[in-house]
Amino acid sequence: MNLFLLIGFCLVVAYLLLNFFIKASSKKIAKGIRYVIFTFGILLAIALFLVGRYAFSIPILIFLLPLLKLKGIGGIFQLIQLWRLISYLRQTGRYSFRSGANFSKASSNISLDDAYNILGCKKGCTKQEVISKYKKIMAKLHPDKNDTDTTKLAQIISEAKDTILKSDFN
Asked: Each residue's pLDDT tens digit in the chain (170 positions)?
């Protein structure tokens, strides 16, 4: 008899959970899961810190940073990607922090390898991947969305996308 009640209880709970998932929006579910993971991660990091396992608590906190969904630039990984892009453009002489478009040399002859490096794509990727990387970068660097002048960076990124699309997908 107890087994029958336990199975019945489990089925009722499963029905209620499935009914909730059907009616809830995907954004609400994602936000709830992100909240639970973030809360559990913070509690785990605090517990590890209190028992003296400092080296284990720091990586947990670092891995939780992307769950914050920061506004503006985005997560820590996007910040690293943008820093890598700007560093690469500075090393090749295509961009300077000092005076923007006046100081930078013209980028009218971006090689195919440079274009792939600028967008962070690998050779042989699909057209959709190139366009997706372009849109992600431009969402952060578009001149209309930034207080600083990012016109030169946006121009270089657009030119890199055009170079890849013209040479590999025509």
From this structure: 688 899 999 999 999 988 887 888 888 888 888 888 888 888 888 888 888 887 788 888 777 776 766 554 455 566 677 777 777 777 777 666 555 444 445 455 788 888 888 888 888 888 898 898 888 888 877 777 766 677 777 888 888 888 888 888 77
Which residue carries 């008899």 as its tokens?
1
pTM above 0.85, yes or no: no
At the top level of CATH, the class of 76-168 is mainly alpha
Q: How far apart are the C-alpha atoms of 56 and 73, rounded to whole Å?
A: 28
Within the chain, which residue ranges are assigned CATH 1.10.287? 76-168
What is the C-alpha to C-alpha distance for residues 67 and 83, in angstroms, rounded to an integer? 20
